[in-house]
């Protein structure tokens, strides 16, 4: 479906009109409505109780506040009020004057100077000159989508897991309610135009437009954080951003200043392990976990509180790219993750995550050997299991990137009754920072009035003015207490929905220091290392070789090895040291924890569900391909939810050996193996002969092999694999049937296509085949 179709569908859904009816009904100037002085965009109705009818302060609500029950479509309906569609319309100025010529400026004679009075030129140019706004200071590059959140049945319990005993937040407890959301995924370090597939943390920010106001869960795809106190955040960001003298490198931690900072901050060790792992190279936003990071509080109707950690778990599994692949994607498909999210939603796959909570009370928290207020720590799932409570579904792409994805503004301070903060000193600092930074980005405290940021819940208060104020607040009294407007708007007692913070008892001296309970830095870094499979460990070591290999100063590399990594695991430190010219340490560091604990939930290999939904599969062919190989495999893969593309030397129609034709979706100039999850070479000797004479298909296969991706070949297609020489791989011979060897699925005779397709689907579901030794493959 094209994006135009998409828009029409949605509009149709809401108005019940066909697209053609809508364009006839749109405000066309031919059927100009007669204007009279009482025409307004929307006429507020008097309140049912009569209050405010005298204009004395009360009013029915913000003009676009959602009335009645909120549902999945509510935000879309609210946005519909500000959507503009130029289709079939006449060109006008911003002020509604019809324009006769938008190509030629007004001049004093044909070849004379431009005239100041050309209001259309001035307006067009001024708008253009002011099109950009400051990019986010961090998380500048991102992409977003609309969807909904719904509390749901716990598949393990077989019933709805009601957590109303621990929270009064309706958004988390009403299974009949689909709350609209907008989610923005992002990289952290790079500027707005940087590549998607850099080694970095990913932001996972969700704005829930709940009936009780907006709740922003502004999280990341990794559960710990780099630092413990918000005071350190500007230093962290200055260290990791491009160096200030030459603005190099873009979107990368691989330079002296970041590792200088890291090597002097042992609290960073746990997070650095995650950043060196495949978690920092997500295959897709839809294949990425999300975490609230901090410990938050839930509060119930009785004012009691438990601690909570929030987890998003993707239905499609948690998968990574490999480093060589990411660097190639920077050039060949630099919008890889942005495009990936957009395409799957437009194609009708709706990515889904499960929201889970880890709940624990103060007594349990006391018993952990770490402080739950320390954001460099996780609560291991071996200690507190994750309890699934609902699902997030993303099902609409934005209509306009700037208006929605760029202007959406998150703030961890946006919470609703039933959800509260903990004293995590990083979280506490964030509560100041986000409101403050939005003032810089939007130049006004009225950023909450921008349509994408507006709550669906009604808003009434005494805020009135400021740059770009949208609301027209009626009445004289904009203060409290007042008698002129019946003292409206009224405060709301807690029992009726007024927000109340948890009544925590605090007793202590003002102090500027770091708690003793925040001083241990290596235990969970070691837990993470222990929990990795060997290929995952190798990925971490390789990443450290790259990152620290880019560090010029030897003393920084040494500190990383001796002071940090050697306190995580001696073997790890030794393996890293060997690759970066540092003398390997003789013995483990003094602070290395003495434990072999593992948490299976930390390894991505344990997060590989049996599905190939949304994976992209390339079929390489040319004229003379074996018709049934292509048609049967294509339908078998598509039946499992995969997306199949035909790739050939040139675009256009390709003829099969038995007369069927297919259309090439992409040609080798534009298609690269790095954009796909798996590749197939169907049989047909003429097709395979042509492919074998070209470098591109062989490179495609060799590169897919190097990146551990599933590969399949049928009939004569197996000859191409032999030509490429895949090391230590068994290729099927005559009469062998289907042979699977480290994710390479082959059949020489190509007779049993069902069994072949099944073996290939299994290989794709495993995502990557780490048992290969692709080092010698030249790709
Ligand atoms: C004291 C620590 C932190 C400070 C001061 C801070 C500050 C900021 C700032 C200024 C922005 C730009 C916001 C904008 O212009 O719209 C931002 C964005 C963001 N931050 Fe933080 N941050 C901190 C820690 C964290 C942590 C721990 C997380 C994850 C739990 C996080 C997740 C995000 C995300 C996801 C965004 C992007 C939101 C979007 O998509 O617009 N930040 N942060």
Q: Can you put this structure into words, describing what you see?
A:
With 779 residues, this protein is α+β, with helices and mostly antiparallel strands. The chain folds into four domains: 27 residues, no CATH class; 308 residues, Catalase core domain (Catalase HpII,  Chain A, domain 1, Beta Barrel), CATH 2.40.180; 86 residues, Hemocyanin, N-terminal domain; 161 residues, Rossmann fold (3-Layer(aba) Sandwich), CATH 3.40.50. Helix content is 28%, strand content 15%. The chain has 22 helices and 21 strands. Strands 1, 4, 5, 6, 7, 8, 9, 10, 11 and 12 form a ten-stranded antiparallel beta sheet that branches. The chain has a seven-stranded mixed beta sheet with strand order 17-14-13-18-19-21-20, sandwiched between helices. It is globular and about 95 Å long. The two termini are 35 Å apart. The N terminus is likely disordered. Keywords: Heme, Hydrogen peroxide, Iron, Metal-binding, Oxidoreductase, Peroxidase. Its EC number is 1.11.1.6. Its cofactor is heme. Belongs to the catalase family.
Supply the key terms.
15% strand; binds protoporphyrin IX containing FE; 28% helix; 10-stranded antiparallel sheet; 4 domains; alpha+beta; 779 residues; 7-stranded mixed sheet; Catalase HpII,  Chain A, domain 1; globular; 21 strands; Hemocyanin, N-terminal domain
């Amino acid at each position: 479906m094209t994006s135009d179709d998409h828009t029409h569908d949605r509009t149709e859904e809401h108005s019940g009109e066909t697209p053609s009816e809508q364009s006839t009904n749109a405000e066309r100037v031919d059927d100009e409505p007669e204007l009279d002085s009482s025409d307004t965009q929307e006429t507020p109705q008097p309140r049912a109780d009569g209050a405010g009818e005298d204009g004395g302060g009360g009013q029915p609500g913000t003009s676009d506040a959602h009335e009645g029950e909120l549902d999945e479509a509510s935000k879309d309906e609210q946005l519909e009020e500000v959507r503009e569609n130029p289709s079939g319309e006449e060109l006008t100025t911003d002020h509604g004057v019809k324009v006769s010529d938008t190509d030629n400026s007004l001049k004093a004679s044909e070849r004379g100077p431009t005239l100041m009075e050309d209001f259309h030129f001035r307006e067009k140019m001024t708008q253009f000159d002011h099109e950009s706004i400051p990019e986010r200071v961090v998380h500048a590059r991102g992409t977003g989508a609309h969807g909904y959140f719904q509390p749901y049945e716990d598949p393990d319990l077989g019933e709805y897991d009601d957590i109303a005993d621990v929270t009064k937040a309706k958004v988390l407890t009403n299974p009949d309610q689909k709350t609209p959301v907008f989610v923005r995924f992002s990289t952290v370090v790079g500027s707005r135009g940087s590549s998607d597939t850099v080694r970095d943390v990913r932001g996972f920010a969700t704005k829930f437009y709940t009936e009780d106001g907006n709740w922003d869960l502004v999280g990341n795809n990794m559960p710990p954080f780099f630092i413990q106190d918000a005071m350190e955040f500007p230093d962290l960001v200055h260290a990791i951003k491009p160096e200030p003298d030459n603005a190099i490198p873009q979107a990368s931690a691989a330079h002296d200043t970041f590792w200088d900072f890291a090597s002097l901050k042992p609290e960073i060790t746990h997070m650095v392990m995650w950043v060196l792992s495949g978690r920092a190279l997500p295959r897709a936003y839809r294949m990425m976990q999300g975490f609230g990071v901090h410990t938050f509080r839930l509060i119930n109707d009785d004012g009691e509180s438990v601690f909570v950690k929030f987890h998003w778990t993707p239905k499609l599994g948690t998968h990574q790219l490999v480093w060589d692949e990411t660097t190639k994607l920077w050039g060949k498909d630099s919008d890889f993750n942005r495009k990936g999210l957009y395409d799957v939603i437009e194609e009708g796959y709706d990515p889904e995550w499960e929201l889970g909570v880890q709940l624990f009370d103060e007594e349990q928290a006391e018993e952990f050997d770490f402080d739950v207020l320390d954001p460099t720590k996780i609560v291991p799932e071996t200690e507190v299991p994750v309890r699934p409570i609902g699902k997030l579904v993303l099902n609409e792409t934005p209509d306009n990137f700037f208006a929605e994805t760029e202007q959406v503004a998150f703030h961890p301070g946006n919470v609703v009754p039933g959800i509260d903060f903990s004293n995590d000193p990083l979280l506490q600092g964030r509560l100041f920072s986000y409101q403050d930074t939005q003032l810089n980005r939007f130049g006004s405290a009225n950023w909450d009035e921008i349509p994408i940021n507006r709550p669906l819940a009604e808003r009434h208060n005494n805020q009135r003015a400021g740059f770009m104020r949208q609301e027209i607040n009626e009445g004289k009294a904009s203060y409290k207490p007042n008698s002129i407007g019946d003292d409206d708007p009224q405060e709301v007692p807690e029992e009726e929905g007024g927000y109340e913070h948890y009544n925590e008892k605090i007793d202590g001296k003002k102090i500027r220091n770091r708690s003793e309970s925040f001083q241990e830095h290596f235990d969970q870094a070691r837990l993470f290392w222990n929990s990795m499979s060997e290929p995952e460990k190798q990925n971490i070591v390789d990443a450290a070789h790259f990152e620290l290999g880019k560090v010029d100063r030897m003393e920084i590399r040494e500190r990383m090895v001796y002071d940090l990594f050697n306190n995580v695991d001696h073997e790890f430190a030794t393996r890293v040291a060997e690759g970066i010219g540092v003398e390997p340490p003789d013995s483990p560091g003094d602070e290395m924890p003495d434990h072999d604990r593992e948490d299976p939930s930390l390894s991505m290999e344990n997060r590989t569900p049996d599905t190939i939904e949304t994976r992209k599969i390339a079929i390489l062919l040319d004229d003379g391909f074996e018709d049934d190989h292509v048609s049967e495999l294509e339908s078998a893969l598509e039946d499992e939810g995969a997306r199949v593309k035909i790739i050939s030397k040139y675009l256009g129609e390709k003829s099969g050996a038995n007369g069927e034709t297919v259309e090439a979706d992409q040609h080798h100039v534009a298609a690269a193996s790095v954009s796909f999850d798996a590749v197939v070479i169907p049989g047909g000797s003429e097709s395979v002969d042509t492919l074998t004479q070209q470098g591109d298909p062989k490179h495609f296969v060799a590169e897919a092999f190097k990146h551990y991706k599933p590969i399949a070949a049928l009939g004569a297609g197996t000859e191409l694999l032999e030509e490429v020489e895949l090391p230590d791989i068994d290729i099927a011979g005559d009469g062998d049937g289907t042979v699977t060897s480290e994710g390479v699925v082959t059949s020489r005779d190509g007779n049993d296509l069902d069994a072949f397709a099944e073996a290939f689907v299994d290989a794709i579901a495993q995502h990557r085949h780490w048992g290969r030794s692709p080092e010698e493959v030249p790709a």
